[in-house]
Amino acid sequence: MKSRAIQPFHFPTTVAFIDDSPQFLANLSLQLDSRLAFRLFHSPFAALVALNGASAAQPLAERFFSLYRHRGDKNQTRHVIDVSLDMIHREVHNERRFEQVSVVVVDYDMPEIDGLEFCRNLRNKAIKKILLTGKADEQVAVRAFNEKVIDRFIRKQNDDVMGLLNSAIAELQQEHFDQIEHMLSDALAVGSHPFLRDPGFAQRFAEIRGNLGIVEHYLSCSPDGILMLDMHGTAYLLIVQTEEMLQGHYEIASDQAAPEELLRQLRSGSSLPYFWKTGGNYSPIYEDWQPCLHPAIEFKGEDWYLYSLVKNPGAFNLKYVYPYSEYLDHLDREARQGLAPST
Hints:
The chain is an alpha/beta fold and 343 residues long.
């Protein structure tokens, strides 16, 4: 399926599995996608304590959006919303970002509390819910789905239960981000990031992600683009420029009496600049300016773009960023040592 838009940010999240049978959970864990972060609970009450306690974190929407308080218009019937782009790419420095639970998979038939009551008692309504049922419970699951208590239900007796489960988890993890990301995309559509809503460029971005093994990305500015990281924390900055943006770089460099060869490359569109020490624009402090230019690739979507990839970009201070591979290793050690919440 082709992408229609680029999400302003995305990072892996955790899935919680709740079943009163430790043996079932152990067998289940061996068949899950190796890149999936998950926690196992054989006590639904322990799971509720853990999940409801974690929900005290400030929602992403509140971190990215706020009322703009420095406006001149005193009309109190109109509000201006401020979107903090800095807060989007700063999320990469949040060491607990992967701990966010996006999906729970819960058994229906449990002695302490059934799966539907468990779902009703989750405080964080953004968490997506999958109910595992037996054949006799299918009608109960259908009613719960229609009442929006759960988002999916899967019968344990299905021949391809693991295939269905892995697919449903992937879809719901994507949906978990949709509301906040749609808000951001709508706000940014009128700004300086037109490539976010360009279906053609979104498809190219998906190809770049796949080729580089990217697992998380964040919108950035100065220059406009997307900060991307793979599982091991290797970072890439995808710089995306329109003709108008590149012309702006050329005019600033010309005003700063930049070397003629630099001006020629900017004028020709053969290179994109990354003057990260000065907010993206040329300054005479760059005596050795050649390393700041990167080969440009032309792309025609709904608009015309030039893009370039910069490995290990200097502006983001990423030396101590917590990579997803280390989080997966942490969960694995936790389970082996008997420290997981399921014990």
